[in-house]
Please model this.
Amino acid sequence: MSHPDPYGSAEPRGWDRPAAALPWPETDLEPGPWRRPAPGPDAYAPSVDREAYAPPYPNGSPRRDGPRPSAGPPAAERGRRVGPGPGGPGPRPDDEFPTAQIAPVRDEPTEHLPVVRDEPAPEPPAGRRSKGRRRASAERPPTAAPRASRAGRNLPAAIGVGLGLGAAIVVPLFFFLPAFLAVLVAAVAVGTWEMTRAVRRGGAHPPLVPLVAGGVIMIGLAWFAGPDALCLGLLVTVLGTMIWRLGDGPGNYQRDLTAGTLIAVYVPFLAGFAALLAAAPDDGHLRVLVTLVAVVLSDTGGYAAGVAFGKHPMAPRISPKKSWEGFAGSVTAAAAGSALLLWLLFEVAPWWGALFGVAISCAAVLGDLGESMIKRDLGVKDMSNLLPGHGGLMDRLDSILFAVPTAYLLLAVFVPVVG
Model:
């Protein structure tokens, strides 16, 4: 006996409880293997009738829900398909072939279907337009994006900015020479800031203050004291950067100091030779002029020849747009212009002037490739966006910075010999 029902019923719960009478007849139900027999000594012994549960299918697959009921509607009404099967004639249940009741799909004529033709998309309702666009009319034509030139720059903006920079250099150079010193100091400060900002993307953090201060000192020493003072200013700048960087701790000290030394040599030290050229007595402004003209001719000749005839890349991994045809145009234009200019201003033989132009052109191209390699290594396109059509100031000074030391050395040989 089990315990009494805790909910108040006096009937026992468990195996001794009598089965409740069902409200419907059990005509189709037969005792299955899961029904427990009446309590007795063989209550838990298996009582499966194997003959009653023999597989009713020809293929011998057993059923798990007991024998099929013998009573019921005919096979045709129950959805059976009568016919010979794989095991012989006889009824075949639908469960073995579940798709027997599905009607086959036949090809039907499509003449009655409407023909679908491509039609233009419906126009948006009047008075509404997509976001960010304005309606074009006769007075307001549609806006077209400006097309970039083959050189990859906005040519009108580049020409305008280039003329402005030339005027900022040439006007003080001929009318008030100390103003040219101020322009040179400002250019060195901006270039140092751009380089410091660019190398920080590579993980280096050189100190900006000692580099800018040292650059200004180097330009002043070169202007007033000559090339020896320029080298001394470079040494002072590097030492000042080293001491200043000690305040930030030892982390990445060597990398930051290396980047600071590169900036000190690349920007203010090379720019100091422009101060040496301008500080020459009597003809300093002419020396700066012929150098700048040779650089401009080299850039212009290279651009024109590269756009017109450029087919063979010069350094595709560093600067894909530079070609050997453009380099030939740079050398030719710089050599021809320098030969004429040095003969008119300094009475130098044309072949020496041509040699001067070739050397300046090669130095300018090397300076451009050097800065392109630095930018590619840092993963930047331009040093900054200060100058429309040019990028940053260093993108314009890269050729000049390599050209002024070359011009200083060559003019120191050519002009004193002739004069």
User: Anything to note?
Assistant: Confidence is low (pLDDT under 50) at residues 47-54, 60-66, 75-88. Residues 30 and 66 are 8 Å apart (CA to CA).
